Amino acid sequence: METRLDLKLETLTFKSDPEPHIVIQKELCPACEGRPCTVACPAGLYVWEGGQMVHSCEGCLECGSCRVVCAPGAIAWRYPRGGYGVRFRWG
Predict the structure, then answer these.
(1) Residue 53: burial class (beta carbons within 10 Å; 0-12, 13-18, 19+)
(2) 36-68 residue pLDDT tens
(3) Which 8-state DSSP code applies to residue 69?
(4) Which of 38, 60, 77, 83 is the most exposed place for a label (fewest CB within 10 A)?
């Protein structure tokens, strides 16, 4: 069953930037308690898999939740370059 959030997310388009706008220091992730980025990211782009953090920039909503909840220095986040990233549409 689709939720209201799922329906809203379907109205988004995303143009991938070959230059990633999120860079994580993966060596810090194993020591992170609770791995809050896996819960805080509304797009679900962070997944703890096989003993390591796996993430993708594609589909990022550019909300910055990950940089707020991650330990200082664990993530370098910036907005994508012009013309790239999420595109919001009415729907």
Answers:
(1) buried
(2) 999 999 989 999 999 999 999 988 999 999 999
(3) H
(4) 83
How high is the pLDDT of residue 9?
Answer: 72
Cα atoms in the 13 Å half-sphere on the side-chain side of 21:
22
- pLDDT given for residue 1 in this prediction: 56
Rounded distance between C-alpha atoms, residue 37 and residue 19, angstroms? 21
Tell me what the mean pLDDT of segment 21-29 comes to.
Answer: 93
pLDDT computed for residue 2 by the predictor: 62
Tell me the domains of the chain and their CATH numbers: 4-87 (3.30.70.20)
